[in-house]
Design brief:
Layout: H1 22-35, H2 39-47, H3 55-58, H4 63-84, H5 90-115
Helix pairs in contact: 1-2, 4-5
Length: about 120
């Protein structure tokens, strides 16, 4: 299954040429590298007013969330094993689903905050 088609207004079809000195270009490249992104993406985000965090700061994840996600994963593995042995754990799968949704919501909120430049 391929990537979904973009709406016409979502396509990045316009090109902007920008002249920089060699030193300016190297500075932009180093900033983009530090952010873990391409020069185009870095410049686009900056031009649109976003704060572009460095890759190291954007990769910081709350250890408590990682621990929680790991705990949920362990439970999923145990339930999968029990299900494959013929036992019925539908009720527990629904609980695990709710827990996974909560953890994903927390992760998404954190990513949105980071993209908005909030600590």
């Amino acid at each position: 299954m391929g990537r979904p088609k973009l709406e016409e207004h979502e396509k990045m079809s316009e090109v902007v040429r920008l002249r920089l000195t060699y030193a300016e270009l190297e500075h932009v490249r180093s900033q983009a590298d530090a952010a873990g992104t391409s020069v185009s993406d870095f410049l686009r985000k900056r031009a649109m007013g976003y704060t572009v965090p460095t890759a190291s700061s954007s990769r910081r994840v709350d250890p408590a969330l990682i621990s929680e996600l790991n705990r949920v994963g362990v439970n999923v593995n145990q339930l999968a094993l029990a299900t494959h042995t013929g036992r019925d754990f539908v009720r527990y799968w629904q609980e695990i689903g709710r827990e996974v949704e909560q953890v994903i919501e927390q992760l998404v909120d954190r990513v949105v905050d980071q993209e908005a430049g909030e600590p």
